[in-house]
Predict the 3D structure of the following.
Amino acid sequence: MKIAVPTDGDKGLEENVSEHFGRSNTYTIVDDETGEVNVVENTSEHMGGSGMPPELLAGEGVDVLLCRGLGRRAIQMFSDRNIQVFCGAQGTVSDALSQWKDDRLEPATEASACAQHAFRSHHHHDGESRQHHEGGHGHHSEGGCVKK
């Protein structure tokens, strides 16, 4: 199974989980069967390329995404590609994998608590609106939805 985590660099398992899913510089992909770690550049339209992150990760054969949080539109796009999404990942990629294996991350569905992070207090960048945030492009400094 291939597990992707949005990151901002190329330190592999020691790279921090990106605060912003769609605008992360890289995605660290871990094959939990072989242990292989691959860092791919985010070439989506958010970063001046084409396509959307769900398309990019589906093309890499990703089965699971671990992230801090994301909006309803992105959740739906991953669901359409049969990629499971879990919210609340914090720390490094290694930490996020442990959180997922220990069942401490929240499965993302349109109705899940993970979508409710849009209603928490946070600030927007360059005029981002709440509607823009719910479209999957918000800033997730609070860490998404961690099971307690």
